[in-house]
Each structure stands twice: as structure tokens, then as C-alpha cells.
Amino acid sequence: MPETVSDKTIFSLLEVSRSIQKTIAERYRSLYWIKAEMNKLNHYTHSGHCYPELVEKKDGKVVAEMRSVLWNADFQRVNQQFIKILGEPLRDGITILFQAGISYDPLYGFSLKIVDIDPTFVLGELEKEKRESVRKLQAEGIFHSNKNLSFPLLPKRLAIISVETSKGLSDFFKIIHRNPWKYKFEYTLFPALLQGDKSIPSIIRQLANIAEKTGEFDTVAIIRGGGGEVGLSSYNNYQLAKAIAIFPIPVITGIGHSTNETVSEMVAYENAITPSELADFLIQKFHQFAIPVDEALSRIMQASKSQFEQEESRLAQYSQSISWSSKAVLATEGHKLSTVINHLQLFSMQLLKERKADLNNIQRLLQLADPKQLLKKGFSITKINGHAITQESTVKVGDEIETILYEGIVYSKIVR
């Protein structure tokens, strides 16, 4: 009860707190659906309880903040729903729609007791951000800027943005280092965070570092292991996607197993579902260079062989002509003509030996580059109308194509 001192009614702090507690309890008896950004989950493993920090921001500034509690049993249930629907657990830095009761405690103050969180709302928020980023990039006319760059004939020098301990990066290296054709790649690793809100400035910062020395690289590869929809949300960020879209050299990505393409992947020159697939893409670029070279070597070999045959025939005719002429002249100038014939024969034989040696050397080199050697190792050559297919744009749905294997030919029809 309050006391009266010098005509003043005085309440204790506990009395005020209990009055507030009673008012809050009578006013907010129901559960309410509330939207807020979960700045931190604050999960304590020893008890299993969570004490999320909830905020609301406007123009980048916090305009409201409140503590909350999510008891262990509710957390376990909600977390399982997130894993089932989103592919990963509840985490920091996402906007959530949650159901909670409003309470006040004299000792701990205001708090929200969370009893449920809707994982489908998180998906909706991510999709909303994705659409807005795409709209901005298209409005600025830069959505296809990186895709319109010319890709290097041989993408040998790589600037890699990743985490050194990433399994995805390990898979990528395994393929490019162990390729059976011994293609050699050079790379520089630019370490960056690859998940969560902090990944956005981290990746942009490394792109800026690479931009200062683009002359040293052929392409930039952003490599990350697998993850769910929430883990990939940072790649829908407008600022990150813009940094990739306007980058001066081609950017290629292999950031996870998700089938829902992020905006960063959309604007990149090339995106692969996995780091392993990205490594295969680079190796295929080397193949596309090697096959025309092999075909050119084959044409050179055939032309050289034909030229040598012509020269050999011409020399034989010269030799025969000299032989008949020498018989007529021998009667009068036998000794002189004999000397000339000997010189000519020696010269002819020497020239033939040199030409044949050159031909043998060229044939040996061309045999080493024989396309059959690549076919024997499991690769193939796909043709349409007798010409090798090196670009997707040269075929369309309904075209019939042939694929040449080491042993046999497979005929196919384009359906997609």
C-alpha cells in the first residue's frame, strides 16, 4: 500500500511494477501475431531456451526493440519446422512472423513469450527481396551487363572468393587439380564470409580488391557449399547482385544445391548448382579450345602429306629427265655430265630425306594430338550437319545431332 508523507502519496517501485504488471495482464490477454527482425536468437544449449532480441528498423535505424523468450519445447518444434520447410534451422538476422503473448515482470521488465513462428513467412520475405532486387537491376539496365562480357578463350587465371575450409571449395579443387588432361589452372584465394548478413559486405569488399587488379585474372569464381533457402538469402541482396552485375570481368558462381536461383546467380556470367559443376564448366572451356586445335593439326597433316607427295613425284620426274638427257650428252661430255648427275642425285636424296624427316616429326606430333586419344578417355564430340557443336545457340529444339564416342556413334534429338 502507498504511504502518505507530507501530503504526498508515495508508491514503492515494486508497487508501481505490480500495477503495470496487472494492467498489462488485463489488457493483453490474447496471443498476437507480430512481425519483427530477429537480430539475435540467443540460444543457450545447456537449457535449450532462447532469448531472441527483436528489433524493427526504418531507413536503417532501429525504431523499436524488445526482448523475448522461446522456451526449449517450443524452440525444438519451431526449429524442426524450419529445417523441414526451409532446409536449415532458425537463425539470426531474419525477419519473422511469430505468435506471442505480452507480459511484464517487475524484475525483468517487458517481454514477449513466443509460442510459434511461421517459416512460410520467411520464404515470402526472401522472395519479396528477390523480386525487388531484380526490378532495380533491370530498371538500371545492368541486369545482363556481366553476361554480355566476352569470356576468355582459356580461363586459366582464377580469382576465387570462398572460405578456405569450405567443402565446396575442396570439391572444386579436387576436380581441377586431378583432371586427366593435365590442364593447368592458376588461382588466388580471396577469403570471405559466405552466409548471413555479414557475407554481403565481405564478398563486396573482396570484389573491390579484385577489381583493382583485374588484369591479373581471367574470371572471378564465387564458391560455396550447399545450404537452404535462408542461408542463400544474402545472395538476393541488391547491393551484392549489383556489384557482380557491373564487375569488369566475368563472374561465375557455384554457391549451393538450391534449385531456386538467387539474384546474384542470375546476373553472373555463368552459374553452376555446385562447385563441382563449376569446375567441369572451366574444364569444358579448355576442351572447346583443344578440339579445334586438333582439327587444325589434322588439316595441316593432310596438307603437308599431299605437298610432300607432289614434291616427291616432281623430283622423280626431274631425275628421270636428267637420266635421259645424260645419256645423250655422255657421248661428248661424259665426265662433266657424270659429275653433274652425281651432284644432282646426292642433292635429291638429301632433300627427300630431310622432307621425309620433317613429315615424320609432324606426323608424330599430330598422332599425340589425335582426337581419338580424348575420346578414349571418356570425352565425346557432338556434331550437327557434320560440324562440331561448341555453342548452345547453334542448336534448337527438334534438331537431330550425332555424338561421336571412342567406339561408335549415338544419335539424339534436342528436346530442351
TrEMBL record:
The name this protein goes by in its record: Exodeoxyribonuclease 7 large subunit
Lineage: Bacteria, Pseudomonadati, Bacteroidota, Sphingobacteriia, Sphingobacteriales
UniProt xrefs under CDD domains: ExoVII_LU_OBF (cd04489)
UniProt main location, coarse: cytoplasm
Catalyzed reaction equations: Exonucleolytic cleavage in either 5'- to 3'- or 3'- to 5'-direction to yield nucleoside 5'-phosphates
Domain (OB-fold nucleic acid binding): residue spans on this chain: 12-117
Residue ranges occupied by any Exonuclease VII large subunit C-terminal domain in the UniProt entry: 143-363
Keyword check for RNA-binding: no
Pfam families: Exonuc_VII_L, tRNA_anti_2
Species of origin: Sphingobacterium arenae
EC number per UniProt: 3.1.11.6
Subcellular location: Cytoplasm
Family label: Belongs to the XseA family.
Keyword terms of this UniProt record: Cytoplasm, Exonuclease, Hydrolase, Nuclease
First-tier enzyme category under EC: hydrolase
